[in-house]
UniProtKB/TrEMBL annotation:
EC numbers on record: 6.3.4.22
Stated role: ATP-dependent agmatine transferase that catalyzes the formation of 2-agmatinylcytidine (agm2C) at the wobble position (C34) of tRNA(Ile2), converting the codon specificity from AUG to AUA.
A GO molecular-function descriptor: ATP binding
InterPro entries from the UniProt entry: TiaS-like_TCKD, TiaS_FLD, tRNA_Ile2__agm2C_synt, Zn_ribbon_TiaS
UniProt GO BP: tRNA wobble cytosine modification
Lineage, broadest ranks: Archaea, Methanobacteriati, Methanobacteriota, Stenosarchaea group, Methanomicrobia
Protein name, UniProt field: tRNA(Ile2) 2-agmatinylcytidine synthetase TiaS
Class of this enzyme: ligase
Organism, as annotated: Methanocorpusculum parvum
Catalytic activity: cytidine(34) in tRNA(Ile2) + agmatine + ATP + H2O = 2-agmatinylcytidine(34) in tRNA(Ile2) + AMP + 2 phosphate + 2 H(+)
Similarity section: Belongs to the TiaS family.
Protein keywords: ATP-binding, Cytoplasm, Ligase, Nucleotide-binding, tRNA processing
Classification via PANTHER family: TRNA(ILE2) 2-AGMATINYLCYTIDINE SYNTHETASE TIAS
Length: 407
């Protein structure tokens, strides 16, 4: 039997994985056999999401579906953030996995509440939708999910009495954890910015989430951390870090809210707009698409700025509000031009500007000066360039996981 759950949280608290973990623990205690705990991320472009568009599926061996629905609904009644307008929980119980086509639709495209309810009735699922019932979409997608590629996340949750207070932890443990277990784990820290990225900042109950290739690796990585004592933790199998959201670009061009991987030619050189967003145009078989590396993607923009007209590249990203939000790119063939970007500062790595005719360059960040005109030939290699861990979408496959067949 599979139990699906979604849409229980709000920006002010809760998290559907937390509720799922509580239910799994309760089922364990009651003598049920919990055979799997799965966390799926669905279309990252839906407007209804609170944070990462997560839904959960708990696999249970044996037992009575009516009782499981009742237990799960008891937890939703008690914990869901009903006061939030955007919180519309859904609980689904099925005796066997439904057609995965619905999962792929929720992952890569859009679903309606009406079609979901009609599917639930057709497959004779037990279900309960609260308020407008939107959570039934994620709950049905979770029980319908198949993971041809999967990763794991060890999520540790905070004790009830500390919720809403700052999380207590030592930075060092996270860096040690990354050093000891990367590339088998990823997105624990951003080494370049010396930042911890696996600890959320909000009022939700997650203490940290360690992502990796197997339950053993995420468990080992969590063992290096020094934090406040978690209430409990659970290892979830997930579709995170698998690029499962990406579709090939259709001939007729991109559709709003879908995510793609495709190859094209850089048709207009990157420009940095006000606000620090870097924009260029890519041409593909069907036309032109405006591509953005937004300011929060920080040093990723330096690689994007090195692109030049005529470069052939493969890009991955989501099409939202008429532009492609770049997640990563890989140069296939460089056009051979030199670029017109200012050089990098040898002291702090920031961008330098000309200090005047024959006066070399001055750093905009730390004011360091260099006399000699640096070599502006391009440093781009034929490899994946990706946004920093802190700006990565949950579904985006990190470069460390890109294998030959992905190239
Ligand atoms: P939570 O931790 O509660 O799951 P979240 O950030 O994952 O938070 P939700 O609060 O679940 O986001 O909100 C997402 C809502 O969008 C859910 O009701 C879900 O059923 C719905 N949804 C998910 N994918 C799609 C889709 N492809 N089309 C339409 N609705 C979707």
């Amino acid at each position: 039997m599979l139990l699906g759950l979604d849409d229980t949280d709000s920006p002010d608290g809760m998290c559907t994985t937390y509720l799922g973990a509580l239910i799994a623990d309760e089922l364990d205690r009651m003598g049920y056999t919990v055979s799997s705990c799965r966390l799926v991320r669905l279309n990252p472009n839906v407007v209804w999401k609170t944070r990462g568009n997560a839904a959960v599926c708990i696999g249970i061996v044996g037992g009575d579906p009516e009782t499981v629905l009742k237990i799960a609904c008891g937890f939703v009644d008690r914990f869901a953030e009903f006061s939030c307008e955007k919180t519309n929980p859904g609980v689904v119980v099925v005796e066997s996995a439904p057609d995965p086509a619905y999962y792929f639709q929720a992952l890569q495209r859009f679903c309606t509440i009406q079609e979901t309810v009609s599917r639930l009735d057709t497959i004779h699922a037990l279900y309960k939708g609260y308020k407008n019932g939107r959570g039934l979409i994620g709950a049905l997608a979770a029980v319908s999910s198949v993971l041809p590629d999967k990763t794991y996340e060890c999520l540790a949750y905070r004790k009830a009495e500390v919720l809403g207070t700052p999380r207590i932890f030592e930075d060092e443990g996270f860096f040690i954890s990354e050093e000891k277990t990367a590339p088998h784990t990823w997105d624990t820290v951003d080494f370049i910015r010396r930042a911890i990225v696996c600890v959320p900042h909000g009022k939700d109950p997650v203490l940290y989430g360690i992502r990796g290739e197997s339950p053993a690796w995420v468990q080992e990585a969590a063992g290096y951390l020094k934090t406040e004592e978690p209430a409990f933790s659970r290892i979830w199998e997930t579709n995170q870090g698998t690029d499962a959201h990406l579709l090939p670009l259709p001939k007729e061009g991109p559709a709003e809210g879908e995510s793609y991987r495709f190859s094209g030619i850089v048709a207009s050189a990157p420009k940095t707009n006000r606000g620090g967003h870097v924009q260029f145009t890519i041409s593909h078989v069907g036309g032109y698409i405006s591509v953005f590396a937004f300011e929060p993607t920080k040093y990723f923009r330096n690689a994007v700025r090195e692109l030049a007209c005529g470069d052939q590249i493969t890009v991955c990203g989501s099409f939202q509000k008429g532009v492609l939000h770049l997640e990563k790119f890989r140069p296939e063939e460089l056009a051979g031009q030199k670029i017109r970007v200012s050089p990098k500062c040898p002291v702090c790595g920031g961008r330098m500007t000309s200090a005047g005719k024959d006066k070399g360059y001055k750093c905009r960040e730390c004011s360091a000066r260099v006399r000699e005109v640096p070599d502006l030939s391009r440093t781009l290699q034929m490899k994946w360039y990706e946004v920093p861990p802190g700006s990565r979408r949950h579904l985006a496959k990190p470069a460390v996981r890109m294998r030959d067949q992905d190239n």
